[in-house]
Sequence to fold (278 residues):
Amino acid sequence: MPAANPTRNATLARAFGGRWALVTGASAGLGEQIALDLAAAGAHVVLTARRADRLNDLAERIRATYFVQTLVVPADLSLPEAPRELYDATEGAGIPIDILINNAGFGYLGQFHRGSPEWDRRMVTVNCAAVVHLTHLFLPRMIERRRGHIMMLASAAAFQPIPYMSTYAATKVFDRFLGEALDAEVRQYGIRVSSLCPGPTESEFGQVAGLNSSAFRRAVPAEPVVRRGLLDLANGRPISYPPGSGAFFIFLERFLPRTLVTRLLERGLRRAIPARNA
Ligand SMILES: NC(=O)c1ccc[n+]([C@@H]2O[C@H](COP(=O)([O-])OP(=O)(O)OC[C@H]3O[C@@H](n4cnc5c(N)ncnc54)[C@H](OP(=O)(O)O)[C@@H]3O)[C@@H](O)[C@H]2O)c1
Fold:
């Protein structure tokens, strides 16, 4: 359960209580924690990802602990029809989605030319195309209702090019810019869009991306990251810098030539590449 903090809990309950949230990538890591925290705030949750067994377990835990409603809709967001299927299973079935959490995503660490073009294509589809498609489907209904919250799972990697994670970092800058621009565009309708920018966070991300464990030595737990992200979403902050995001370094980078930072990152990350991708 999230740490008790009456002011925070009241803010989250006011923003999210009694609303339906759609959480993509709810079967693990940050998405699972977001679903738990939203349910703790009194939101009903639609859980989606590919692993249905995990989603069903989580739904059962949520119902037993928080007495909110849940709906499990397994979907593979690398398939072009998946966002429409999620829309049909929710708004199309009379469930108004007031909170859209665009969280599902994955990365890859290794030299670009040794990576798989199919893996990269799927990464761009899940991390970017599905986010655009889902937002296109759900945002107009939020605007009609004059209420809604959208979270984009960006990253601390969304502030500069990252060698050996080139496609991934590019997808995350896409998510951040999309989120920032949309927030400015839809505020007038009472909708808030916030881009959460975590640094290394405990989850299955490193394993999926082929990052060795030392790269995640200083990873922070998902709980404080999600706590900050949901509070900033509720408070209408367009960008959220959770613990471990390195906000100070992100600020400093503004004053340094980007090529210099990128070359320094290349040197640092070269050592972290798994042998098979080097
Ligand atoms: N952990 C970090 O250090 C970190 C830092 C910055 C940003 N982020 C971002 O945070 C988000 C969540 O990542 P995480 O760290 O929680 O990683 P994670 O533990 O690996 O979780 C990723 C989630 O995305 C889902 N997913 C992956 N491919 C999918 C697909 N094709 N269709 C539907 N769902 C899919 C996975 O579910 P299934 O496998 O069951 O489909 C899983 O639920 C990502 O967007 C990531 O870029 C993570």
